[in-house]
Amino acid sequence: MAENSFANAKQQRMAAVQEALKRTKMVTAKVWNPWPDGVADKDVDLAAITAPVGSSSVPEVLPDNQVFSELKRAQLISLGAAAGLGGAVTAENLAEAKKALRKKYVQVGRANYRSLESANCTLFACCVIGMLADQPNLLGRDVKVELLNLPDLGGGGHAYVVVGRADGDYKNLKTYGPDCFVIDVWYARQQSKAPGTSPVKDLSADSDSPFWDLNFYAFLDDGYNFLHKYTFVSHELAELR
């Protein structure tokens, strides 16, 4: 397939996702934890977009690449309870725990994305993936959907969704490929004008793309560490009910 065919398919996906987001409350939801330094646009009225910290229903995340030996006893107990195992995670049931928590993660997102009133980045990202699961036509089949995190940014880090990333090093933005884009509602809610206000972010510098946001790219490309949490395939998401 020619490179411009990839670009056209990506533009169609980005536009479809953006329109779908507009039909939810995510694009007007308030933010529990705005960042006035480094993220929020100086023209944004932070008081108007900020809500008191609420209770997040997002289940604990057990990353795809998590190995048993790196989990502490307290984590094993907590993850086992979250996964509904009736006890702690063990080396024998680690795969079962991962499967259960992936499914719960998608279910929580599906249940909350339409009516979300306020959130932190963790809940926003969960709801985005829930929307993609609930509307599989937005991406079509065989499209990679990932949950990534910037752990250097304090607290639980910053969670966001990556779509269509090429195989390669997820820690290197330059390897993400021409078909990749990001969805980050939390970031967009803290911007005052386009393209910042669009949750959909093109990662290929293209003056003709309404989704190219240089400031957002610079935000990701600021020397932070990256953590990989989950990888889904678009049509698989629809099956995680």
Main traits of this protein?
five-stranded antiparallel beta sheet, 241 residues, 8 helices, 12% strand, alpha+beta, single chain
Structure characterization notes:
The chain is an alpha+beta fold. It has one domain (3-55, 117-237). It is built from eight helices and seven strands. It has helices spanning 3-22, 46-49, 73-83, 94-112, 121-134, 185-188, 214-220, 234-237, and strands spanning 30-31, 118-119, 144-150, 158-163, 181-183, 200-202, 227-233. The strands form two sheets. The protein has a five-stranded antiparallel β-sheet with strand order 6-5-4-3-7, sandwiched between helices. It is globular and about 50 Å long. The two termini are 33 Å apart.
What is the element layout, followed by pairings?
Elements: H1 3-22, E1 30-31, H2 46-49, H3 73-83, H4 94-112, E2 118-119, H5 121-134, E3 144-150, E4 158-163, E5 181-183, H6 185-188, E6 200-202, H7 214-220, E7 227-233, H8 234-237
Parallel strand pairs: 1-2
Antiparallel strand pairs: 3-4, 3-7, 4-5, 5-6
